[in-house]
Amino acid sequence: MSEVRAVVATGQGKPVEVTTIVVPDPGPDEVAVDVRACGICPADLRYRDDGVDGEFPMLLGHEVAGTVAAVGVGVHHVEPGDLVVLDWRAVCGTCRACRRGRPQRCCDTPTADQPMTLTDGTPLSTALGIGGFAERTLVHAAQCTKAGPAWRPAVAGLLGCGVLAGFGAAVYTAPTGPGDSVAILGCGEVGVGAVAGAVMAGARRIVVVDTDPRKLDRACRFGATHTVNAARADTVEAVRALTGGDGADVVIDTVGTPESYTHAFYARDLAGTVVLAGVPGPATRLELPLPDVLSRGGALKASRFGDCLPERDLPMMAELYLQGRLPLEKLATEKVPLEEVEAAFDRMHRGDVLRSVVTF
Fold first, then answer.
1. Locate the Alcohol dehydrogenase-like C-terminal domain: which residues (predicted)?
2. pLDDT at position 329, please?
3. Residue 187 near residue 218, CB atoms below 8 Å
4. Which domains does the chain carry?
5. Left if phi > 0, otherwise alpha if psi is -120 to 50, otherwise beta: which for 358?
6. For 51, left (φ over 0), alpha (ψ -120 to 50), or beta?
């Protein structure tokens, strides 16, 4: 076992702490990974503040690229020294969704059997089964996707969550077709990933909506064709005006609030598609007139991790990056040490950065 430094959330809404944790040696089908970079995602802040599906103390961080330190019995697809990206939506292969040929909807993502602990033996829960704000973490072998030697860890880790979730929401969940008009509400990492996906799918018009001009500008660098500042314009009216008065063929809500979803619902064309890609809070409720749901037709979809398959889509996304077609380096707006995670949460909450990355 190893003792390493890590960022731990000790209670709901409390500032995170840097402390020492104990990482067991890998057992069967487990892998110990020395973390080289981990993106600071809004989901981490959500876990700290809401304790979503987890108990405290909690080890945060899930957008990880790292080097395999050791493997357990039965692990053959990676070995010590390999650079890997960790997948919080790994596929089990045996659940009812996997057996029906729908692995992108796997409902039993495997995680490490052994818990990491504080030095006094207190077990740590892990946000999304990864626990990447640590010098070393322990994961299930299925959560490791081997990366190519040309991948930069600080960029590769971003593919483990938001970018891929947004890309898949546009390409797989919607799906966007050539010539479609697409509106994307929210220009964070998921929104930018959705812009990239809409570009790759051949959308003719990509409208992005946000209240932060800096985020709107960044989205344009990824291929957005039109912008709407929601602090100055009515979202629904503006999107309709930019799509011939009819609304967009596809509207992707990356915010995940009742207000944003309602805007998405009414900003789409009749028989268009709404995709929920943002993560709502645990107590969030939505009210829509049911007659409007019926009369407008179309599709209302939820996208979990963009309906992506990490083993299929991570290499494809990395290749797009290496070809210069997916400028991921523009997302990693700052690199910070473990000690600055709490301060980075504050900057993210204020909108001062698009994505901070913890590097080791």
1. 190-319
2. 76
3. yes
4. 2-160+327-359 (3.90.180.10), 165-303 (3.40.50.720)
5. beta
6. left
Position 155: which residue type? V
Q: In what order do the strands lie in the sheet with 226-229?
A: 226-229, 205-210, 181-185, 248-253, 268-276, 299-302
Q: Rounded distance, CA 338 to CA 356, Å?
A: 11
Please say whether the beta carbons of 84 and 143 come within 8 A.
no
Are the CB atoms for 90 and 110 separated by under 8 Å?
A: yes
40: left (phi over 0), alpha (psi -120 to 50) or beta: beta
CA separation for the pair 8, 73 (Å, rounded): 29
CB 87, CB 77: distance < 8 Å:
no
State pTM to two decimals: 0.86
pLDDT the model gives residue 176: 97
299-302/63-71 β-pairing: unpaired
Q: What pLDDT score does 337 carry?
A: 92
